[in-house]
Specification:
The chain has 353 residues and is mainly alpha-helical. It has one domain: Farnesyl Diphosphate Synthase (Orthogonal Bundle), CATH 1.10.600. 64% of the residues lie in helices and 2% in strands. It has a two-stranded parallel ribbon with strand order 1-2. Helix 1 runs antiparallel to helix 2 and helix 4 packs parallel to helix 5. The longest helix is centred in the C-terminal third of the chain and has 27 residues. The chain is globular and about 55 Å long.
């Protein structure tokens, strides 16, 4: 297998993003940032580290404003606060926290997603913050939107625990294995569960469950999650805790490739997912209800807003990489054929001729 040079310059293939979608930013971004910072400080979200508290607040509120630009009012503010909390599990998993402790935290927080007041006497400020924001969201959302939101966040926490377990085992992941894990740890279902409350819609169970809708949402949101592999790889490649990413999985499946070639192959996988999303989206919109139109608009904004967020926030942005990212209107791989990975190949079956 060709050796990976982690100290090499940022490969050019990481910096161009196929994303022919409009971008918006919430007009309430400054309010979200201010109020989320106040909320995070009130709960000491950074556990005594004021700088980390401020960083979590700014990251969460900025993420909400960029990826859900139609978020407003009390729902928008509660989701901004929750998004600040949402980086806590990610940091726990990426910090080298002992596996038993990490799994215990994920399990406790998963219960609190459904039942926010389960541990009222907990001294952990992260518990108190989660209890507060989930109770607010339960009051602000419709019962259907709340149940979908809470369930999706719980699935994400389970998958974060799975990632920690795989890392502890030094598990070897193929591309197919990695894509399965990334759908969970990339929080694609969790991200989708924000959309209906933000857009003021409520998909019926029939529309939500349609295979073509599930395939479209999964393809588009997985493409966005794989974009994060690019931002995160640039930031994390010199850290002592190495996180699995798509490019390592591609290199493992194809050891004859150089690592730069594995990056190119990984970007092509992402671009083919994006192409599939756009085709399925166009197909669905021909006879979509107003709620489904709003839901698909929300997916569009997550994908395009994720790019804006990642290129504007200090969580991902490096001092020597401030201007290297760009959007393009053409995929690196124009193929419309199904990708050869069993976990996702069925998505292409829902394209009409």
């Amino acid at each position: 297998m060709t050796a990976i040079n982690e100290a090499a310059p940022v490969p050019a293939g990481l910096t161009a993003f196929y994303c022919p979608l409009d971008v918006e930013v919430s007009p309430d971004i400054k309010l979200f940032q201010q109020h989320t910072r106040e909320w995070a400080e009130r709960f000491d979200l950074g556990e005594g580290d004021q700088g980390r508290t401020r960083m979590l607040a700014l990251t969460g509120s900025s993420f909400l404003a960029h990826t859900y630009p139609h978020a407003t009012g009390a729902v928008g503010q509660a989701l901004a606060d929750y998004s600040a909390w949402g980086w806590v599990p990610n940091d726990v998993i990426g910090s080298g926290c002992p596996l038993p402790e990490a799994i215990s935290l994920m399990g406790r927080w998963e219960v609190m997603m459904h039942s926010p007041r389960s541990w009222p006497s907990s001294a952990d400020p992260r518990d108190a913050a989660l209890a507060d924001v989930m109770a607010r969201l339960r009051d602000l959302m419709s019962p259907v939107n709340w149940e979908r939101f809470a369930a999706a966040q719980g699935i994400w926490l389970y998958q974060m625990g799975w990632e920690a377990s795989l890392r502890e085992q030094n598990a070897v992941l193929s591309v197919n294995d990695y894509l399965v894990m990334r759908m969970g740890t990339g929080a694609i279902l969790a991200a989708e569960s924000y959309i209906d409350p933000v857009e003021g819609v409520e998909l019926s169970a029939t529309e939500w469950s349609r295979p073509a809708v599930r395939a479209a949402a999964s393809a588009g949101l997985l493409a966005a999650a794989l974009d994060n592999d690019r931002y995160s790889y640039i930031r994390e490649r010199h850290l002592p805790v190495k996180k699995e990413n798509l490019f390592h999985a591609v290199h493992r499946d194809h050891p004859e490739l150089t690592f730069d070639e594995a990056i190119e192959r990984g970007v092509a996988i992402r671009d083919r997912l994006m192409t599939l999303y756009l085709r399925l989206r166009e197909q669905l919109l021909t006879a979509a209800s107003d709620d489904l139109c709003g839901h698909l608009t929300g997916i569009d904004r997550i994908i395009s807003g994720n790019f804006n967020f990642a290129t504007a926030t200090t969580r991902y942005l490096l001092a020597n990489a401030a201007d290297i990212f760009a959007k393009t209107d053409e995929p690196t791989d124009p193929s419309t054929a199904p990708l050869p990975y069993p976990a996702i190949a069925w998505w292409w079956e829902h394209l009409t001729p």
